[in-house]
Amino acid sequence: MGAFARRAPTRGDDAWPRTRRPLPWLFAALLVMIFLVPFDAMQLKVALPVSSDFDRFLVIAIVAVWAVGTALGRPQAVERLRPSGWAIGMIAFLLVAVASIAFNVERITNLGEWDDAQKHLAVLFSLAAVFAIVTLNLRASELRPFSVLIVVLAVITATGTIYEKKTGFNVFYETSSAVFSPIATVAPSPTDINPDPSTTPRPTITGPTRHALSVTSILGMALPFAVVLAAMTPVRRRRVLWSLAACLIIAGALITQRKSGAVVPAMALLVLFVLRPRQLLRLAPFGIVALAVALVVTPGIFSTVRELGQTKEQDSTEGRTSDYPAVMPDVLTRPMLGSGFGTLDSERVDTYRIFDNEYLGQLFQVGAFGLLAFIALIVTPLFVARSVLRSDDPVRGPPALAAGAACLAFGVACALYDILTFPQAPYLFLFMAAMCTCAASVEVPAGWTARMPPTMRRAVPA
Amino acid sequence: MELARTLKTLWTRRRLVALGALIAAFAAMLSVYSVGLFPPSLTSRTNVFATASTQLLVDAPDSAFADLANDLTPLETRASVFARFLASPVALTLVAREADVPLTSIEAQGPYDINLPVIQQEPTAGQRSSQIIGEGALYRLRFENNPVLPIVSVFAQAPTKAEAIALADAAPRALRTYINRIQVGQDTPEDRRVVIRKLGNATGGVVNAGANVQIALLVFIIVFGAWCMLLIPAQTIARGWRETNVYGDGNPNGGPGTGGRESDPQGFGFPGGEHERVR
Fold first, then answer.
1. pTM
2. Which of A131, A269, B112, B180 fits as disulfide partner to A430, beta carbons 3.0 to 4.6 Å?
3. What residues does each domain of chain B span?
4. How many CB atoms lie within 10 A of CB B166?
5. Inter-chain touch A455–B252, beta carbons under 8 Å
């Protein structure tokens, strides 16, 4: 272990939550917003030039605090070197997104789609800003506390979602409506636990999001953190508790009665088992016990799983498969840069399809180049963190493993629905991508890089 | 620290930064203008357009709305048929003549059944192919009809406000002309004739003025930002290329003869062995 490359966290690290630095607290607020607040159903009562969505204000606050901190901050004793190419996926995707608009400008303006493109670009820039600032400011010693926070928030989300299924009461929407009523309006909850079977085949259980698939995605992405915390802790009592948390998260994802609720967590677990089979197999007995407890806590989970295979689900599958031939005219007309980023307005159902596959949606909007950039965006965190994914360093290894599995779970969820339409999962993915980069970063005493020869400035973890 | 160092690096390469600004400005111009060389010209690529809308009522000679004894159902059915007819080539020929615009420049869509499930409203490959062909049309018409109302809504798009209003107003006139021709040809009795009433003159305005500037600005920022970001690693690589002699051409982890601390004239002073891990 290098003298400067891998430092264990100490009290003097000024790491969240024992810090007065405002940025980590804003990162925590971001996570709380993702897991507990239906922010995409909220409009603040203050007008912004592009949109008054709740998340934009938090992003603006993060950017402002970072800018002020950068301008006024004191020189730090430690310098963090990130692996080269950590932002390449995001930069490539941003470039292709703008290029797709520039190349299609005649079509976009003629069809009156510039406003839609503008809004989607604003979201993309928000996501990029969050990703960059979290990556630049997150410290390795903060990875574990943030992992714990993610699991705690996911458990609350799962519990609330299970409660929603049982009672029809969406605690996230109702609480947000009450808490934020002076400053924001919250749309009514889409919850419907007893729908008319002739029109709606499944209950609508959304948790803090606008769509069931969105809540299953964030729970599926949080699951690896609970499993990794359970696998890595040496204390048996904690292992049981983390295993229980994992089961509760799985139950919360399954209760939505969506196939994605089973697929995304399953893929996340599979990735963990592939990367660290021995550590994960140790959890098997705890998993069985915790599963039994979870079944007691959430009776009816088996019927939920059985309902996933019912006939009405086949309509959903047919809808997905019919997307492929329907997208061909657009793909063949504009194969390289697509129709323009953000022009796929799913509310114009007579013109555009709702693609139940984000990759297909990106192929439509930003073409083959954009699809490649989008895949690069998903894969880059795993690539930069590849050297720490199997590391035994307790500070970096487990969080990197969990965040890497979560990034892959996001990649799987992308194949199941139009994930960028709902902001929770993209925000969470980019936070986890930032965690991967942070785990793979190297800390050196400040000023050392200036004395290094350029050929040695790339930080490659041992 | 990092931001300050980045800005300092860019300042030392200010000529290249200025070159990047020029390239970004050129890219921004290309994004919204088509450049012609012979003769030199700039043609805007963004279409500033206007929209206008109106409504037409399918009625009876003695207005059905003023007489409670009249059943509206036959009129609702006809409104639905007329809305579909208006998007047909026959109707568009009449609309083009009334509005005095080329028939080939008009694209018409609708009506769409909003009561169907989404999956049935979504366009198939064939429908989408037709839509793609019509995407370049400068004059666009869209017809909407609520099945329980004898009303057809007309939405028109054209390069100017006057043309958009003229196009919207042309649709009811074209329909009236066509129906009258059939009624005269069939010798339909006066009291049984369908009457097309326009519910007021079309109103409209310019929609996307300013898109040009926004798109150009966006392209400038992105291209200039990407150029500046590329300058940093490019400078590092260039300097690294120049300084390879510090280590020789061999493996820096090799023995004294192939590079390493012994051949490090600047004395970077890394802790023993640490630098060997940096590839």
1. 0.86
2. A131
3. 2-45+211-247, 49-207
4. 20
5. yes
